[in-house]
Write a sequence for this structure.
């Protein structure tokens, strides 16, 4: 029989530099199956949409780093899945997307010139992009999509994917996608509070979204208004992203960009990522329900502001600096108390 063991390979990724990839050796063949992260595997859709073949290699040195190298995109996806797994486990105590330690498949090279990536409830899928857009396998994209899996498993019934609740769903994915990027701490793709800055989806090397000033993308709302509930979820995410940035890093000029306050709100001094991410996760895991909003006239208690304040109270105490900063960070995006 063949003995199966877990081994550390080396991968030349497209975006994250040279990284360790956890693989499996069976006989004399290495497979992209990761026993250290719930046996998550990475497989090749071969630009089709049905069958997926687990990547194998003879020497456990994967890819070249070239955008066009088929193994390199797989390295990014495999590394992204492992970093996202480690992030939720080590930072939030969440044992995988489902909470049971199971890893998930990552399917790369999906379809023909497919310019998206998605979580389908069970697995990850990544396209190669088209034109100037590159494979959609960067750390923040992997973390974003798998965080959709966390959201749908920790919020009863999930966060409904339209209007303000959909914006909170998207913001949760942008927030944790970026926190995964910070957690992985690679030189080639460090945390930055931008979403999709590596994949050139706009063709001019600009990111898809900017958490510190969401309006920079031309469509996202940076401040809540009565029309926020009517825009696409990738734009109604703006106030949530902007709140999180203000809570972690503060308003005004920061190391990551300048965050404007909305209206005549007071400036905010951030409490740091480590506290901000704990507050958001606890609010999501413990308090959010499927129709939570930024501002809720029919049920004023069912808001992200109220729930992040409850989370801050649980973690740091009522009227702690952290609690007061949550208040100020929401007020700075026009979500008043
Ligand atoms: N990439 C998109 C997103 O995560 C696709 C989707 O699943 N809605 O928002
Ligand atoms: Zn999303």
């Amino acid at each position: 029989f063949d003995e199966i063991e877990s081994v550390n390979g080396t991968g030349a990724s497209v975006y994250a530099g040279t990284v360790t990839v956890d693989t499996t050796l069976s006989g004399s063949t290495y497979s992209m199956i990761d026993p250290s992260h719930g046996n998550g595997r990475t497989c090749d859709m071969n630009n089709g949409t049905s069958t997926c073949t687990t990547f194998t290699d003879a020497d456990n040195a994967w890819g070249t780093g070239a955008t066009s190298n088929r193994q390199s995109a797989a390295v990014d996806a495999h590394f992204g899945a492992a970093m996202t797994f480690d992030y939720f486990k080590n930072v939030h105590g969440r044992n995988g997307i489902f909470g049971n330690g199971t890893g998930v498949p990552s399917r790369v090279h999906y379809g023909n010139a497919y310019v998206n990536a998605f979580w389908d409830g069970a697995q990850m899928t990544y396209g190669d992009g088209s034109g100037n857009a590159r494979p959609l396998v960067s750390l923040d994209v992997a973390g974003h999509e798998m965080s959709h899996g966390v959201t749908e498993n920790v919020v009863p019934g999930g966060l409904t994917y339209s209007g303000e609740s959909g914006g909170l769903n998207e913001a949760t994915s942008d927030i944790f996608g970026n926190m995964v990027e910070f957690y992985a701490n690679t030189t080639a793709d460090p945390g930055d509070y931008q979403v999709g800055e590596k994949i050139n989806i706009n063709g001019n090397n600009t990111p898809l979204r900017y958490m510190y000033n969401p309006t920079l993308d031309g469509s996202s709302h940076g401040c809540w208004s009565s029309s926020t509930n009517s825009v696409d979820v990738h734009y109604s995410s703006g106030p949530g992203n902007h709140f999180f940035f203000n809570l972690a890093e503060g308003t005004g000029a920061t190391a990551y960009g300048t965050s404007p306050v909305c209206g005549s709100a007071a400036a905010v001094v951030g409490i740091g990522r480590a506290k901000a991410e704990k507050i958001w996760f606890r609010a999501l895991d413990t308090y959010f329900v499927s129709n939570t909003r930024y501002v809720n006239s029919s049920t004023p208690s069912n808001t992200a502001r109220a729930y992040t304040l409850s989370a801050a109270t649980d973690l740091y105490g009522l009227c702690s600096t952290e609690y007061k900063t949550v208040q100020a960070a929401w007020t700075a995006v026009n979500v008043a108390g």
Notes: The chain has a mean pLDDT of 97.
